[in-house]
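Okay, is this right?
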Amino acid sequence: MEPVVHIGPRSVRGVRSEGVRVFRGIPYAAGPTGTDRFAAPRPADWTGEFDARAFGPTAPQVNRAGIPGVPDLSAILGTGWTPGEDYLNLNVWTPEDATGGGLPVMVFIHGGAFVGGSGRQASYDGTRFAQDGVVLVTVNYRLGVPGFLRLPGAPDNRGLRDQIAALQWVREHIAAFGGDPDNLTVFGESAGALSVGALLAAAPAGLFRRAIVQSGGASHALTTAQADHVTAVLAGLLGVPATLAAFAEIPDEALTGAVARLEATPLDLTVDGVRDPLMGLSRLGPVIDGDLLTGQPVDAVRLGAAADVDVLAGANSDEMNLYLVALPVPETTESLLHAAAAALHPDPATLLEAYRVAGRGGTPRELLGAIGTDYMFAVPTARLAEAHARHPGGTWRYEFTWTSPGYDGALGACHGLELPFVFDNLGRVDYGVLDVRQDDGTARGLAERLHASWVAFARDGDPGWPRFTPEAPVVRRIGTEWTSTTTADGPERALWRDVR
């Protein structure tokens, strides 16, 4: 018999699979169409019984599968756009015997540079979480132009507002699925992690109890000047004024095409002396709008935003190798390395020498990878941990060090590599370029242990290693071996301390 869950006067019908009940594509907000694509999210307006047996549509985005010369990144970016109006939807995996309630709840926010991805990706299948006593939720939110482009007359950060609306829906209804709304952990990777970092500052107090930030931080919001520059360039590509009325007339297909062109357009987002916080990996993202975000989220965290939230934050050792090794990019020459360092740091010569002395790379590509990993991921993670560590909520930090065999080991512990282990989906999903294999016994054991740590954190607020404190800044190194250190950040990372 198919499972049915009643949520007030409405109900949802799902499926059973592997001892788990699954409910797919449930609208948590009304479909954003027409001018409403650029409005704040509105309540979902469906009634009666909703058929949640199949995944719903996804946010408009570029279909990247099958591009010549580009490896399979579907495990990270998804397979592309599944059209449909009601794409503000979520998916729930819950144990078969969850009717007693009180289970920990985890809500995952997907990555994809704020322009791609979805909560229906196979790599985010929540079966293993549900089998381990967690109610797991994945969320779709507005991406690209509808989600994050700054437009006069439209609320900023619409994608973040969608995420808040989804979390509020979960708080209101998750008890019917067996979850405890007061024990909710929000977690995300990449753009999803940046979203979680922003939510620590922007979400209403008490919306979630715990947060996990995987390869992100809370230092990546664009200034309004930077966001306005992006809007002007995109409007120029479309040949329209940078107004709400003009953009409301443009169909989603044209907007996604314009985003693809924007990605291919050289664009310096150093505006008014402020460097690009997204390092060119995306042109769209959260904006310091004076409403949800009054500054960089990490500054709000330092002042006590999310003071009672438990925070687990980490990065992978070789994040940038996904981009520099797996993707078709120009050869990293000495001149390119120096230009990149100069774009990120006011003293590039001192920076490069410090990374060489620290043994962070012997070739220009290796040095660029180390610098980019630190600027975009490791240093913002450290800043977030330091900002939160003096507040009542616990703080934990990790570094994922397991090395993929891909590209003869050159991928290292690249961006996104922890995802198969967090979701414990080895053998269930083809991870493509990440080259994580079910028949690797070391990987199998690591997946079981890392997944169990995330479950324990959501359940009890303790991932299994000491807290990160100002007096003892413990970082758990997670790989073939698990070790702890209080000296994870070498002198080369100290050079970023005052760089914004």
